[in-house]
Amino acid sequence: MELTDEHLDTLAGLAIEVPSWAYGNSGTRFKVFATPGVPRDPFEKIDDAACVHALTGLAPSVALHIPWDQVDDVDALTRHAAERGVRIGTINSNTFQDDIYKLGSLCHPDAGVRKAAVEHHLACIDVMTATGSSDLKIWLADGTNYPGQDDLRARQDRLAEGLATIYAALAPHQRLVLEYKFFEPAFYHTDIPDWGTSLTHCLALGERARVCLDTGHHAPGTNIEFIVMQLLRLGRLGSFDFNSRFYADDDLIVGAADPFQLFRILAEVVRGGGLEADSGVVFMLDQCHNIEGKIPGQIRSVLNVVEMLARVLCLDTAALAEAQRRGDVLGANQILMDTFYTDVRPRLAQWRPERGLPADPMAAFLASGYQERIERERVGGVQAGWGA
Ligand code: RM4
Ligand code: MN
Fold first, then answer.
1. Residues 6 or more apart whose Cβ sits within 8 Å of residue 26
2. This model's pTM is above 0.90
């Protein structure tokens, strides 16, 4: 099937949230490379995010990490975003930087550390209230490196208790989104290793607790689209952290490593109603650009998602359902594969100018002089980054 005007209207409603940390310096545990023009503060990160939105029309919000993006005047940052045509989205609580968190945060054996971690989350909720954000996203670096290091079950109990205190502090319009990751930085066990554990805690917390699915947080070979299907079926998919991986939690550009996997994931999103306004599914990017340009990296990512989603929309679901009903194994598979191979890019390039956007956002960025300008202007100060 072709991309229709109705499909394009659906795509126009797509909102991809970009992470502020993508604009800062990042790297591996071996090296963080400095890049000219990198933002020195959250205001400049928002400027770069706004540039991505201006060129793609599909990235209207920016996720912040606290304390990476801590500012004295949150209202000023919120206003700054609005002036630039974007808004602040999800607030991420980082409890993996401070020395006290060496053995964990909400699961830590020491009650004092757990209290500090809970308080950090309460401070994040204050930020959300000031920015108008609705989601508190929790990813914990908690886990252990050695068998016997700590009591696995007691850690779950501590986790449940901490999460319950945090959840109780949310306003009625705010949600808690709980991310899982099967390894790293802890290697023997992780306290929220998988979607089952995340879902278990969410179910105990209440309706406004949902699972965040980071596409890079699974063991190799995991059928991620199955998880997407199940969480949508249960009404518990809160958000995606899109990225791609070859080996570990690589945080590479979404759709770069395995475009077909992205297609299959998005097919389940559409099948499960995840695109509908009331689904509550937030499409976030969770990536860092260690060696490639950061703003172009984000533009590429937004385009990869919209292009793949456009293909999915071309799926002839009636024909597919009919082939499935007939038990036509190869026929059904061919319908899916033909859709995957549909090139929607020329039609999208025509469509963008109809929306007042450049036909080729990447080329428009390169020609805009924006990168040269920030490299000229952002001199001095300390570049944002995780400083490994
Ligand atoms: C974690 C996880 C979180 C992200 C941090 C920076 O691995 O994916 O979502 O915010 O990294
Ligand atoms: Mn993530």
1. 32, 251, 288, 289, 290, 385, 386
2. yes
